[in-house]
Amino acid sequence: MAVRARWASPSRGPRSPWLHVTQAAAALAAGMGVGRFVFTPILPLMHAQAGLSAGAGADLATANYTGYLAGALAGIAAPALLRSPFLLRGSLIALTGSLAAMPATHSTAVWIVLRLLAGAASALIFVIAVSSLHGHLREQPAHLSGWGFGGVGAGIALSGLLVLALRSAADWRAAWWASAALTAALTLASWHLRPEPAPAAGAEPGRAAAPAAAPGARTHRWFGVLLASYTLEGIGYIVAGTFLVAAIEQGSPGWIGSGAWVLVGLAAVPSSPLWARLGQRRSRPDVLFVALVVQAAGIALPALVGGVAAALASALLFGATFIGVSTLALATGAHLRFPRSVALLTAGYSVGQILGPLVVTPLLRHGYHQALLLAAAVVLAAAAAAALLRIGFPHHMPTARYDAPVRGSVPAGATADPDTGGA
What we know:
Blueprint (H helix, E strand, L loop, with lengths): L1 H5 L10 H18 L4 H11 L4 H24 L7 H17 L6 H29 L5 H25 L5 H19 L14 H47 L2 H28 L2 H21 L3 H12 L2 H15 L4 H20 L8 H21 L34
Helix pairs in contact: 2-6, 2-7, 2-8, 3-9, 4-6, 4-14, 5-6, 5-8, 7-8, 7-10, 9-10, 9-11, 9-13, 9-14, 9-15, 10-11, 10-12, 10-13, 11-12, 11-13, 11-15
């Protein structure tokens, strides 16, 4: 009855959780799949047609990730923002406008400002949509939230198909305009997404903060290793997420790069629920280690082996792991019941994404292969940290489902544990 009440509305009647998943997926497809990652397949077009240098491309990527960090920090500093439907809609509109404005200039400085704005809007869309999934699906099976995260992959695939279709018939300007139109359509599909519900009026503030303090104190060493691993993943993955298409197109026919990016998106759609299931059946640190090693292999492959088959295999391995790694890392942080684990992990990941393009910029004078090899090495370092996480890991702590945000209280459904200070 509790679940039914959660989805009942006096004015609209019972609400299907799948409708909520679809709306959240559309928001994530707009904010992340298109708003952040359409730059990857458009980047080679801007190099060839707009005179954008490799270094300037890295600057645009860094601006976008800096804006993303700013938006994420705003959500952390003011949690009430996560419950605002007006901010969600305003961010979707701002994102659409920033994409549509890219073709209006050839100024790198203006492009940097637009990508900064797009990054902030993407982050706000992401935190609101994910918090909405967490808040409304807390009592539902975990794979539902996983399919919501799959919206990121769907947006990547759609935007990649769009650029692939346009590259032979139009120029880089048309690609940006088309991506803005796609974002507008996804905005309409997610317009009525309900943000995270407000905390219960009768909650006791003092009681809410107490239970998580003791577990956090006892699990800080594992959480510190997890944070280091996830930050390193942010550095390595974003280099591939930004430059993979351009790197593939250096040694393959032009359509292969955009086609590989479509494959990245298609592989990403089911990856989150699949990795989430594996994380429930096996040790999460072990599964995280495997996912990171597979991702490192996918990133290094086009730098080590040429040809179409290697490019497509790289796209498949990368797409099948990068969202799954995030799913597993957030699940592990929630399992440890470390206070504000989602916020802290997201901040570390964002810092890594800013550092990634900056670290590899000196290598771009010689093409993208050295940058991909360095990114693969950093992801392997993240895997090594995940292997260390396995040592003495408290597997038998009461598990808070990863789709329940940790805000200093025992999540719904967690059982009491006298050893960790559970209520």
